[in-house]
Amino acid sequence: MSDHESTPIVTLIDAARHFGPVRALDGVSLIVTPGDCIGLVGHNGAGKSTLVNLINGGLAPSSGDIAFPAADSARQAGVRSVFQELSLCPNLTVAENLRISHVALKGPNWRRPARAEIVQSLDTIFPGHGIDANAEVDTLSIAERQMVEIAIGFSPRGSTARLVILDEPTSSLDAGISEQLLVHVRRFCTEGGAVIFISHMLGEVFEVASRIVVLKDGKVVAERPTDEFTRQGLVDAMGHVAADNGEAAEIAGEFGPEIVRTEQGLSARRGEIVGLSGLAGHGQAEALAQLYLSRSSSWHPDRSPGAVFVAGDRQRDGVLPLWSILRNISISALQQCAKRGLVDRAAETRISDTWKRRIGIRTDDMTNPILSLSGGNQQKVLFARALASSAPVVIMDDPMRGVDVGTKQDVYAMIRTEAAKGGTFLWYSTETEEVCQCDRVFVFRNGEISAELTGSEITEENILQASFEMQEAS
User: Fold this and answer.
1) Where in this chain does the record put each ABC transporter domain (predicted)?
2) What is the dihedral of CA 78, 84, 87, 91, to 10 degrees?
């Protein structure tokens, strides 16, 4: 191995970052060398995003040292970041978005090499992607936007990508596309690149990482080769963040009457958890959106809402960015905390504090802006908003994006408890593990329902078979 190949890309020694009294990162030491694929795991708020921003130069450390032995800065060292919150400009084309981070593209005809470069990167990582480099980003699905963001991260951009940081890169991708990315990550690291892979999907971490680093409360609590971890050992190292509220998930023995029925044949009964599955982009999100709109007023708030919506694309469809955490939760329950048409602030605070405790929202002050939270904690707020509502039907569009494994288990239990009380849930997810939590599953293919599975029929094998069988028949 040459000196260049063995020289660390980045070295952190006791690196810390404080925001006032909050120690977001508290003395982390880490070395990243060529060929490393580091799985970085921890609950939402553990310090992962802060660590990423120290490595990529977005933040300076409050104390400690960060060095790039072969370069003067993160950019010169070939450090790239692909963030969980997609950062593409929606009014620009795919090729024009590449130009933003590719300063070497100049002159009147720069769009031609930009198109060629982004298509080459997409073809390498996601064969058969079908994305047009001339398409405006706001016309793409969230999965396609994530693919473009990843392709820009790995593209040459006038230099060489040596360390690519992937923050929840598969959160919007189905299993097939996710596997394409994992194959590329392994190839990239084998060829001398390095990756920091942040994911709450522990199966992917075990599949792709050569080493796992566990963060908790801003500190590294475990670091060793992947094969020295077990799944349960990794979960135990991460610890738990949501408080035990003493509620046991109850399994409903029988369901009530049917309260949802669409023209496509999608149905749900009172107290039932119904899953929507299949390959991403085959009509599941559209079916849920139509159902929600059919049960919601388009111009005034309902005193008794027919449905409430939990968005997977929280930046576009979920959080109210100018409002506090408290107001983002309580907006769905204002009728419950109102007296004579005026909001009872004490009742509003009680509702938000209850859900902060139940779902483990990491903040010291619920009046802080919603954007002060990590992405996963923002998603917890959307869950709290939905479950605090009196709506009998909860519609969830791939809602677990960026939520850690511990919180997922807590949310599963809460959903089961609320269903046992008579709530009805329609749940689209790209994760088979989540779909298998449901009582009944509708598999979509080409905008139509290709299978209805119940009980023991709900398996990964049956879901995959139903996802492809209509295509084969055609």
Assistant:
1) 10-242, 241-471
2) 130
Query: Class for domain 258-473, per CATH?
Result: alpha beta
C-alpha–C-alpha distance, residues 346 and 420, integer Å: 29
Q: Which long-range contacts (CB under 8 A, 24 or more apart) does 1-6 make?
A: 4/70, 5/34, 5/35, 5/192, 6/33, 6/34
Place of tokens 């909860």: 394
Element (H, E) at 471: helix 460-473
Q: Domain 3-238: which topology?
A: Rossmann fold (3.40.50)
Q: Which residues pair with 425 in a beta bridge?
A: 273, 394
Q: What is the 3-state secondary structure (H, E, C) of 67-114?
A: ECCCCCCCCCCCEEEECCCCCCCCCCEHHHHHHHCCCCCCCCCCHHHH
**CA-based nearest residue to 320, from 336, 331, 306:** 331
> Are the C-beta atoms of 381 and 319 separated by less than 8 Å?
yes
Q: Tell me, rounded to whole angstroms, the distance of Cα 58 from its chain centroid.
A: 21
Domain ranges of the chain: 3-238, 258-473
CA-only gyration radius of the chain, Å: 23
- Looking up tokens 């690149």 gives 193
**What's the pLDDT tens digit per position in 278-303?**
877 788 888 888 888 888 765 555 56
Q: What is the pTM of this model?
A: 0.65
Provide the sign of the torsion angle of the four alpha carbons 465, 467, 472, 474, taken in this order. positive
pLDDT in tens, 64-91: 999 998 888 888 898 999 986 668 888 9
Per residue in 300-351, pLDDT (tens digit) is: 555 677 888 888 777 777 888 899 999 999 888 877 777 777 888 888 898 8
Q: What is the mean pLDDT of residues 54-68?
A: 92
The residues near 442 (Cβ < 8 Å, ≥ 6 apart) are: 265, 266, 274, 275, 276, 277, 449, 451, 452, 453
386-416 tens-digit pLDDT: 888 888 999 998 887 667 677 777 788 888 8
Q: Do domains 3-238 and 258-473 have the same CATH topology?
A: yes
**Alpha carbons 257 and 260: distance in angstroms, whole number:** 9
Calculate mean pLDDT across residues 406-435: 84
Return the bridge partners of 32, or none.
10
**Residues 184-216 pLDDT 10s:** 999 999 999 999 999 877 889 999 999 999 998
Per-position DSSP letters for 278-307, written without gaps between them? SSTTSSHHHHHHHHHHHTS-SSS--SS-SE
pLDDT of 345-394, one tens digit each? 888 898 889 888 888 888 888 999 998 887 778 888 888 898 888 889 99
